[in-house]
Structures are given as C-alpha cells and as structure tokens.
Amino acid sequence: MKSDGSLLSLALSRAAAAPAAETRLRILAHAADTASREGLEGLTIGRLATDLKMSKSGLIAHFGSKESLQLAAIEFASDLFVREVVVPVFDANRGEARLRAMLEQWLRYVERSVFSGGCFFMAASLEMDGRPGPVQQRLREATRWWFDALAQEVRFAVTAGEFRKDIDPGQLVFELHAAAQEANWGYQMFGEKRWFARARASIEERLAGARR
Fold first, then answer.
1. What is the CATH number for 179?
2. Tens-of-pLDDT digits for all 212 residues of the chain?
C-alpha cells in the first residue's frame, strides 16, 4: 500500500510548490487517503490536526469547514486521477485503442494501491450516495464524467467501424465499468490480485463481443 508520502510525491511530481501550497497538498494527501479507507465523514479538522501534528487553527485557515475539507479532498483525488489515468492515454488512437488504454490504466492505478483504501471514488460514492448536498453533487459530477468519457470512445469506435453499429454505448460501458469496480472490491476485500486478472478477462471478452 502506498503511503500519504507517496501520494504527496505524486501530487508534487510535475511542479514545484510554494511552502503554503505544499502544506495544503500534504494535508489533502492524508485526507484523501484516510477517506479512501474510512470515508469522507471521518474527515474532521480535529482528526487531521492530530494525525499531522498541526494546530486546528492552521487547518481551519486552509479549509474553514468540514465540508470544504471534503470537497478539497475530492478535488485532490480528481486531479490525481486525471494525471495518473487520463493524461497517459492521450496518445492512444480514439476509439477501441483509447478505450482499452483507459481501462488498463485505471486497473493499474487501483492495482498499485495509489490510495490505501482502493478506488477513492468507489468508496466515497458508496458512502455519500444517500446524502444529498454539495459533496454528493461533486462526486456525481466526477464519476459521471469518467463514465461519459468511456462512452465517448465507444461511440467513436462504432462510428469508425471498430464496433458493431447496434452496440449500446451506455450498456457496454456499464459492463466494462462494473468489471473494473469489482476488481477493486475483490482486491480490497480479499487482498488477492487475481481479481484484476478476472476483470481483464471480462473486459477482453466483452470487447471481443462488441466487434462481432
């Protein structure tokens, strides 16, 4: 499992940060990693102050409220996801090749335990799906965006003649997304990486079916 320090290293890897910005990133790296294991509701100013050996007033100066801290943790996780999963696939050809690259990069991201609790967004979504408000809304936007991005590549593959014209992009992405999420669940629950092999096999079978 990666440590908060590793998360911070990833966050800072492409640009130098001023001390205040680095402190904020250090707080968010710890907050997001904690939330991946214990939920967003477990994030409190007092908890983080104790964990990071900081004053409560110092943390309040950065975030002001628990909700602001939760939203900032979501933004941290979103930025990291884009950097580690989305940006690396830009060179792949649109359509099936990019769809495959997106799914594989996502699986590798979860497989190497960037967050110690697994997929941040799966954990946060399960926790907040019945709690309307700004935090739930931001999670809906972030997770919907990824689902839609996958569906765009399916539609491109259909237009390019790579997939059958009768393919329902939403249904196909639902099944591909479910395979990746199940791998995350199985790995977190049982600690067995064979769940990723199962996910890859399911994805390959479903994509093969989309071409026939």
1. 1.10.357.10
2. 445 557 666 666 544 556 667 888 889 999 999 999 999 998 888 888 999 998 888 888 888 888 999 999 999 999 999 999 999 999 999 999 999 999 999 999 999 999 999 999 999 999 999 999 999 999 999 999 999 999 999 999 999 999 999 999 999 999 999 999 999 999 999 999 999 999 999 999 999 999 98
Q: Count of CB atoms within 10 A of residue 200's CB?
A: 16
Using only C-alpha atoms, what is the Rg of the chain? 18
Can you give the pTM of this predicted structure? Answer: 0.87
Find the domain containing 155 and state its range: 4-211
